[in-house]
Specification:
Structural class: alpha+beta
CATH architecture: Sandwich
Number of strands: 14
CATH class: Mainly Beta
CATH superfamily: q2cbj1_9rhob like domain
Length: 294
């Protein structure tokens, strides 16, 4: 039986250095200009999270996940070797890597992530779940346009945040995240599919939204950089047709105090949390409280 790293709610390795005082946290703090941009546009790209060594270790652990008989495979919440709806393209998508390997566990406590997340959420950061999105070279599939919260309505209120961290350089050519700036101010849209038709979202947009939709912005990143976005932000990514992969790990979080809105299990294999009860416990650890470093 593989070790379940979700049982540990602190750093497991020395891959990340946790600052010991307020001065040590300053290097990770977002500027007011960055916060204002996020609030106005719905996203913030180019935030450095990982260094070269951290990227290398995460890539090494990720390579193990592509093997069919990898240790710990019973711990995944979801595991799709190919979630693409077209047979000629591939989209590897999995949830729960933090339970399987120490580096994917520890990236949740990356200082650059937790500080930025606490500022963008306006308070203590609690873990929701992680994801892997990987597009191989030359035939990587799409992630269709969507809002993350449309898949998370089993929790409320809307006080969530997504952090997408590149394990490779992400460009328009290899399928970086695309945003519709300002769309986080729209209402919640119906789900039109996660890995299928990029055009399906047209059916749920009014004419004004469709006009805004004609001007997407690609969040191009260097490996180790992240883009953060609001849970109502409309985003997606196109195919990877170039000769290098586009691999990413995603951390989904919410502000401490979000509650369950469903009596059934919220993630596969995780004990249910009753409607109205606070999201907490071993699978939803508190990652960072900014008051602790004030």
């Amino acid at each position: 039986m593989a070790r379940d790293w979700s049982e540990l709610h602190e750093l497991a390795t020395d891959l990340f250095a946790w600052p010991t005082d307020a001065d040590g946290w300053e290097q990770y703090r977002l500027t007011q200009e960055q916060l204002d941009f996020f609030n106005e546009q719905g996203y913030l790209a180019g935030v450095k999270i990982l260094d070269a060594k951290q990227i290398e270790v995460l890539r090494s652990e990720l390579a193990e996940f592509f093997e069919a008989d990898h240790q710990g495979r019973e711990l995944w919440y979801e595991y799709h070797t190919n979630e693409s709806t077209t047979p000629e393209t591939v989209l590897f998508h999995a949830l729960g890597a933090w339970r399987l390997r120490p580096a994917f566990h520890d990236v949740l406590w990356a200082p650059g992530f937790v500080m930025a997340a606490s500022q963008l959420l306006g308070g203590p950061v609690r873990f929701w779940h992680d994801q892997l999105f990987c597009k191989p070279a030359k035939h990587g599939g799409v992630v269709a346009w969507h809002q993350d919260y449309s898949y998370w309505t089993r929790t409320k209120p809307i006080n969530h945040l997504t952090c997408w961290i590149g394990l490779d350089d992400a460009t328009n050519e290899n399928g970086c995240v695309q945003y519709i700036p300002g769309s986080h101010k729209w209402d919640l849209l119906p789900i039109t599919g996660l890995a299928g038709n990029m055009e399906a979202i047209r059916d749920v947009l009014d004419d004004q939204q469709w006009e805004q939709f004609q001007h997407p912005v690609g969040a191009e990143l260097k490996a180790g950089e992240a883009t953060f976005h609001h849970p109502l932000m409309v985003h997606g990514s196109f195919e990877n047709r170039v000769d290098r992969p586009r691999r990413a790990t995603v951390i989904n979080a919410f502000r401490d105090g979000v509650v369950s809105d469903k009596n059934e299990e919220l993630l596969t294999g995780v004990p249910p949390i009753a409607v109205g009860q606070k999201m907490e416990g071993p699978f939803f650890p508190l990652l960072f409280d900014p008051a602790s470093v004030a």
